Amino acid sequence: xxxxxxxxxxxxxxxxxxxxxxxxxxxxxxxxxxxxxxxxxxxxxxxxxxxxxxxxxxxxxxxxxxxxxxxxxxxxxxxxxxxxxxxxxxxxxxxxxxxxxxxxxxxxxxxxxxxxxxxxxxxxxxxxxxxxxxxxxxxxxxxxxxxxxxxxxxxxxxxxxxxxxxxxxxxxxxxxxxxxxxxxxxxxxxxxxxxxxxxxxxxxxxxxxxxxxxxxxxxxxxxxxxxxxxxxxxxxxxxxxxxxxxxxxxxxxxxxxxxxxx
Length: 262
What we know:
The chain is of the alpha/beta class. 27% of the residues lie in helices and 23% in strands.
């Protein structure tokens, strides 16, 4: 196999949520504002999105989409320019240019923009599609049946419980990281000058990774702990930078669009 690199990667500054910190990690208190980014990756064989954030409609009318109670609990903060479609277009691409969408999982804050890309091929981890339609009661509020119904006839590829080399050149490795949900995925992005592990919700906060604390609402705590340790091993072995999707300190540390990594 000839190894290659992804060309560029942008972190798209999607809306933030302000939630009770204890919902993210045991032992915390107070409120925390967390990012909900998507990642756009340019590769010679396609234009790839890792996650699509919340639905664009949630920026314009969160109460109409989620109801008053949930909208209040989420504390969504955003501007119209943070809509995923507008950010992609601001970088000079059309929505129809997106060829692949890798879904870390199907919670509403990671898959709300999936409907914008009906032409793309979608990737979900083994068991994720079934679980999204029949979730455990504890986390059922994280799935939006109306959004899932729109995706039903999309072109889906299930990542079969192992890591998958998306283009066969080592540049984009879909990492099977179950625990938060049965089909949770992370993504290793190999650029010429840096390698990143985009965690999705395999871990929510840097502190949780350091002390190996699973997320309170993970569907499988044992698998989550194994996943946390595996992320650390991969990062150490390959000198990769871990980018924890919801961690505000990670978001402050790394570059955001229109700046990119190459």
